[in-house]
Amino acid sequence: MDLVYKHEKKLFAIAVIVATLFWLVLIGVTFGIALVYVLIGLLFYLFAQSGFISHIKGNGVKISEEQYPELHRSLTKCCQKVGVETPPDMYLLRTDFFNALATKFLGRNFIVLFTDVVDALAEKPSAVDFYVGHELGHIHRKHLRWSGFLFPALLLPVLGTAYRRAQEYTCDRYGAYCCESDDDVRAALAAISAGDSRWKDLNASSYLSQIDVTREFWMSFHELTNDYPWLTKRMASALAFRRDEEIRHPRRHFLAGLLSLFVPRIGAGGGLSLIITVAMIGILAAIAIPAYQDYTIRSQVSEGFSIATDAKIAVTNFAIDQQEWPVDNVTAGLPPAVDISGKYVRSVLVDEGAVVVTFGNDANQAIQGKSLIHVPDTSDFPNVIWECYSSEIDRQWLPKACRND
Q1: Please, are residues 282 and 317 in contact by the beta-carbon 8 Å criterion?
Q2: φ and ψ of 209, to 5 deg
Q3: Within 13 Å and on the Cβ side, how many CA atoms surround 272?
Q4: What is the pTM of this model?
Q5: Residue 366 has pLDDT above 70, yes or no
Q6: pLDDT tens, 287-303?
Q7: What pLDDT does 49 receive?
Q8: Rounded distance, CA 67 to CA 75, Å?
């Protein structure tokens, strides 16, 4: 019987490729310096994890043949069944969480059962096998060992959450495999959903029918951006596995799948991921929009710089021929000022040799009615050098030639 969920190996392979490329590029670009920061990060992780493990050992109850022997028998039986040769240390810990977890520290595996789970299933102790088997699945599949290496790949939208959900489906199979009956599976998952006492009255058929609503947009989106499948799907999948039946869940909403492509995985669920994504978009927009507006205005001012070219040539030629500056457009042989215009330029006026470009038409409000002035320099006459400036337009929007740096 294949305990591995159908998509896990494929998603794992993709994640390995992406993570490998990331680490190679990072090492290459930083000339290996990034490895120093990775080692520092591992050191911080070591200290943090040591604190958590110390908390478990100092406050939890280590399960053994003498201490809660029924739970020890469950651990031993499940290890033999799924092929874990060295049983992990298992502790019972009082918390406010209704769940269990597997963790690792310095090569040693640990399983932690929370007391709320064990207490809730006091009348159905065999259902605890599901939780033990589930956590053994993480250990047997080496999910904990690969998590650090795969970390950069698992931050990616869709891939990270899809792989985590595949892991959960796999571990649910391990849990179901350790159970003696379908009732054990139903009880274990019903307790998470309905609570420590109400689970006994749960109508499983009615509960499983709720799977139909997971096809809706929001249900689809929040599952696609979450590390865990909906409990209704987990129960249906685990029961189908025990019965060796194929199961097809409702197809997710297409637009939800499209939107999820823009939500990176942060390991905190779809809602917070979306909030963070929206915040990131907001920050980027706050930077990008003003930058785009500046770019737009600069391009409009550039039109004014370019459109003055013909007028400057006419003025230069007139000055060389007549040894004086033309007083206006007509003298320079140019059309009237308002007839020389562009998309953002309203007029080009010749005034005693100077060429005055005034913005209007479709120009941004920031430069409407303002002018860019071109002045001839005859210090090396007959070579005429043109200089430009503006006392009205912000310096940041002027062409480099007009900034007088």
Answers
A1: no
A2: -65, -20
A3: 7
A4: 0.67
A5: yes
A6: 677 788 888 999 999 99
A7: 86
A8: 13
Which tokens in the block code for residue 111? Answer: 């399983």
Per DSSP, what are the bridge partners of residue 170?
Answer: none
Burial class of residue 250 in the structure, from the number of CB atoms within 10 Å of its CB (0-12 exposed, 13-18 middle, 19+ buried): middle
For the record, the structure tokens of 153 come out as 């790949």
Asked if residues 186 and 204 have their Cβ atoms less than 8 Å apart, the reply is yes
DSSP 10-71: HHHHHHHHHHHHHHHHHHHHTTTHHHHHHHHHHHHHHHHHHHHHHHHHHHSEE--SSSSHHH
Q: How far is the CA of 255 from the CAs of 19, 156, 162, 233, in angstroms?
A: 28, 18, 17, 21
Q: How far is CA 367 from CA 144, 305, 341, 345, in A?
A: 60, 14, 15, 10
- Amino acid in position 121: L
In the block, residue with structure tokens 């907001």: 282
Instruction: State how far the alpha carbon of 235 is from the alpha carbons of 137, 263, 319, in Å.
Output: 17, 27, 91
CA-closest candidate to residue 174, choices 83, 284, 293: 83
Task: Say yes or no to pLDDT of 257 above 60.
Answer: yes
CB-CB contact of 22 with 153 (8 Å): yes
Between CA 160 and CA 261 the distance in angstroms is 11
DSSP secondary structure letters along 294-334? HHHHHHHHHHHHHHTHHHHHHHHHHHHHHSS--SSTTTTT-
Token digits of residue 335: 């059309």
Q: Which tokens in the block code for residue 325?
A: 């500056």
**What percent of the chain shows pLDDT beyond 70?**
94
Per-residue DSSP letters for 101-167?
EEEEETTEEEEEEEHHHHHHTTT-GGGHHHHHHHHHHHHHTTHHHHHHHHHHHHTSTTHHHHHHHHH
Report the helix count and the strand count for the chain, using DSSP H and E.
14, 8
Mean pLDDT of 136-147: 92
